[in-house]
Amino acid sequence: MPNDPALHFRTATAADIPAIVALVESAYRGDSGRRGWTTEADLLDGRRTDADAVGALVGRADSCILLAERDGRLLASCHLQQQDSASYFGMFAVDPAQQGGGLGKAVLAEAERLARAQWQCRAMRMRVIEQRPELLAWYQRRGYRRTGEYQPFPYGDERFGIPRRDDLRFEVLAKDFAGQPA
Questions:
Q1: Which candidate, 158, 144, 134, places its Cα nearest to that of 29?
Q2: Is residue 181 part of a domain?
Q3: Number of domains in the chain
C-alpha cells in the first residue's frame, strides 16, 4: 500500500468538510468503528468531531488536513499543525473497512514528509489516549517514543466525546526527524 500508485494525497478544502466528519465519526465511534481496530467506542460516546471544528482546522494558515483517496474515494485523513519546530499530528482516521492493510502507515509517512517539506519541522508530536495500548504500540513500531508527558482528558467538554470511564488521559508521543530528508 505505501507504493500504491492509485493512492492520491491532497490537502482538504472547505468542500471536503462533510466527508471528513463522516470518515472520522465512522473510524472512532459507534458500530461502524468496531469494524476496524482504532475505535474509541468502548471509551467514549458522543461525537468525535463536527463540521465547525473541522472547518476551523481547514481554515488555519498553520494547519492542514491531509486526505488519502483512491479513485476519488476518501479513505483516510489526518490533521497537521505547525507548532514551532514540530508538527502536531491528530484526528487520524482510516476507513474501518480499509484498516490493517498498510494504508495508515502510508498516510503517517506522507504526513511526516509533508511536515518536514512544508514547515521544515524537526519532529512530530501527538496525543494518544493512554488506555489504547494497541495504538500506542502501533506508533512505537513507527519510531514514536513515549515521552512520559501526560495531559488530562477534557471531561465536561462534549466536543471531545462523552467519557464512559473516569480515568482517561492523553499520553504525548514524539518522533525526531533528525537525519531524514525534507
A1: 158
A2: no
A3: 1
Question: What pTM was estimated for this model as a whole?
Answer: 0.89
The C-alpha atoms of residue 21 and residue 53 are separated, in whole angstroms, by: 9
Domain that holds residue 168: 7-176
Could you give the CA distance from residue 133 to residue 115 in angstroms, rounded to a whole number? 26
User: pLDDT tens digit string along 57-114?
Assistant: 998 989 999 999 999 999 999 999 999 899 999 999 999 889 888 999 999 999 999 9
Query: In Å, how far are 10, 54, 130, 136, 165 from 31, measured between CA atoms?
Result: 28, 22, 22, 22, 19
Report the amino acid identity of residue 91: M
- DSSP labels for 41-72? TTTEES-S--HHHHHHHHT-TTEEEEEEEETT
Rounded CA separation 114/124 (Å): 11
Grid look-up 494525497 returns 9
Which helix (H) or strand (E) covers residue 149, if one does?
strand 145-152
CB 141 within 8 A of CB 157: no
Residue 156 lies in a domain: yes
Nearest to 57 by CA among 38, 81, 30, 92: 81
> For the domain that residue 52 is a member of, what is the CATH number?
3.40.630.30
